[in-house]
Fold:
Amino acid sequence: MKKPAMLFLTAATFSITCFFLLITLSQCRNSSSASNEQLQEEQKGEEGEEHEEQSGAAKQLSGWFQAKGFPDASNLTEKYQRGWQQHLALKEKTWGNTAPRTIAANWAQLGYCTDGSGNRIGGRVVCMAIDPNNTNNLWIGTASGGMYKSVNSGTNWTPVQTNLNVLGVSSILVDPSNSNIIYAGTGEVYHTEVGVMGFNVWKTRGTYGIGIIKSTDGGTTWTQVMTKVSSDLYAIQSMAFRPGLSTTIFACATDGVYRSTNSGTTWSQIYTGVNVRDIAINPTTSDQIVISVGNMTNPVKGIYRTTNGNAATPTWTQITAGLPASFEGSIKMDNVGAGNLVASIGVSSALTNEVYRSTDFGVNWSIIATSGHCSYQFWFAHTIAINPFATDSLIYGGVSIYRHKIVPTIGRTLIGGLHADHHDIKFDPVRRGTVYVCNDGGVYKSTNGGVSFIPINNGLNATQFYASLGVSKQDANLMVGGLQDNGQVVYNGTNWVTPTGAGGDGTACAIHPTNDNILLACRDARAIKRSTNGGSSFSELTSSYWGFVGDSRTAFVAPIAFAPSNGLIAYQASDNIHRSTDGGATFSNNTLGGGAPPLTPGAFIEQRHKTAIALAISTTNSSKLYVSTSPFAQYDNDLNNIYVTGNPNILRTTTPATTPYTSIKGTLPNRFITDIAISTNSDDSIYITMGGFGGAHVYLSPDGGTTWLSRSAGLPDVPFNAILIDPINESTIYAGSDFGVYVSTDRGITWQDYNTGFYDVTLIMDLQLDANNKLIAATHGKGVFRSDLYVPANLPVSLLDFTGTGAGTYNLLQWNVAQEDNFSRYELERSSDGASFTKVATIMSQRQTGPTAYRHNDYTTLFEAYYRLKIIDLDGTFDYSSIIFIRKADSKNEFSVMGNPFSNEIALKYKLSRSQKINAWLFSSSGALIRKEEYTATAGTGIYVINGFAHASPGIYLLKIECGNDIQTIKLVKK
Structure:
């Protein structure tokens, strides 16, 4: 049965190009003096909750990127798009000719979430557009749940299906000349540069962007009108029409500003820069354009202005008059008319002046006194808007939200009753006094100019759950989960309610295996909340919160689980194992005095600052654990630095109180292990899922990690986050990914799409089985769903085996059946990659009532080939056999390194019997991965040169080479 797991980490990624720098920094930091390691408490005003918010938004927004990108964070946009095409191909293959006896998924949303006051929680909403021709029509974009639309001023919302791989939507435009034309900018990104990620910026995350999409029929159908392939994480941050000419569109992107003069058909880049956040265009002189540039560590930041914005190549000038000399965050703007331009500037986490105004459209600026709303969300969530009916009145929000009257100088007034972390404010251009606010709790509406607001989230379900979901084994109507920025919620059979004692950023949860009164619901930095009354109320365990004093010691989401065989035993994992023997009432290794986390070396799972990602416990042995770890950890009280310690790992123990544990990573690729599932029949039989791109994402070990077998043939190449073994039929496996759910009925040999009921992209965080044997999926952006389990087609044929062998110029395929009953035929399909299959032969059924043997010779020049049988009934119903793999005999390949010791480059000499791919990994003497190379070489002798080692440290390195069946390791010395 599935065990709790965690995907999000307190880390950010690094690229291969900066790896040497990272290792050097890691070694320096890990050997630093005790003063550098000291756990300090941040000194700030308004302690408590403000600390949580600062810790929360930044840390949870960091791990997403790490799990997706590691170890190669380049070209994510291209990889994501390619994975989407693979997903569509698998969907078409699965359901293009739906077998009528097969029960498909029937995913249905499992209620909605409410806060402590009973108001519906909408989730993180980052932008809004109001139809200027009918202001009843509203469009909103969410962080990872796509778009929603309302036709009644927000009374109700319905999701917008694009049939594209759209998660985050950061900007929307409705054409004022034709309301059926809508543009949406995709992706949610706060930092983009791969070369600095993970080294000095850990606030790195977002959802993949695919450029700009457009609808010409009111949102019924959508097409991509800007398809961007970027080496960095890419997003469209905001958009604007040229005043009076809506065929011209400006788009602010993470790599500059783009302009289209033909309604999005083609685009040209008119400004090149990093993180262009917002744009303002003078409505009376459209050549005057102001943009805001940069966020966090970007070297170029500020406000830039042009007076020839409609020229082919506008000239941009940085404006400094009246603006802060330096700032750490981003800038949002708004303008009404030619002389009223305002900016919300994320200066720093200090409570400082953050609102500026220009009366000459950006030439000169002045401070509007008593602002300070951005605070610790200076990089993430703040916004500003001018009241179009009273242009000396503003509303601006960041952590809190305020009304501000400029003339006469009344100053600001706090607005209460809204969720924190504000992303967008929109005034209704027709209805005076109507204004909307988008934040991490959803959408709020005021009809009195912002004096008071009410939540308007009916129909909106963009809530972002984390793994793991706590699911009762006895009651299908009892579950508990953690929400991004919205605390913990308990399912009551109808909806998810916020219990007494909930709060902070909700994370991993668990329910006692036999006592439904006992629930554990965590928040960030491993804080544990416990309920003894079935989830009605929770109280936080003393010393379990490590925020600010121990951020470097725990992931943002620390995995937690009860032992299935003994509910008195529970575990939570940081870089320690925390064990409870009293049903979660107390845990070991909380503190060793002074409020600081324990520093005893013997307590570490692997080593200090290697925080746990996923945790699984044997169903029969409460002392047998599997745990995966991350090499990254955030500095304590340091927003921009991380520790780098080795590589991702997976470990096993039967003595959880004794460390270090035994690494079982073996031949697994160097990527993050995001989930672990243990068989109920044998706790040495485990499945794992992996993040990243390029390679398999599901692996099986039948022997406790000694051997790893890839089980990803045919799956899309995107990060996978969850794995579940059907305890009733352990041949059936479910895997959850960034593109939804897939099912295998043959232990992962073949896979089928299992997404009926989902729309567009659904990012799966966790998969569980409830007490009624229904499949539960927790998503990051669309709430929780439930479906029946998969039921395969029941064809009138019993296939006993399917095998194949290479035989010179052909491959011999053989299969045996126990019986056939009025059956049609077999179609033999062949593939060169295990994903795309082509029919190569049709073999008619012999229609025998007893055992029958079949054989077929397939003449092919392929050295490696995959085969499967499509088994077809008389009525067209079909099913597939397992996939088998055949490789013809091959002579041994030879490898050597020319010039060892080496200096600036490694010259790998090879002799190959045939053309094939060479994979090479270079490791340091401590086992850290330095470089990975892939090269497709032709048959014969050749030399492949690996460059870029001029600044590498002298010493011993290991070069691992894999080519076909040959694996060789060569010891190298750097001069």
Summary: The domain at 894-974 is CATH 2.60.40.1930 (Immunoglobulin-like). Confidence is low (pLDDT under 50) at residues 1-62, 97-101, 193-204. The helical segments are 19-30, 34-37, 47-69, 76-95.
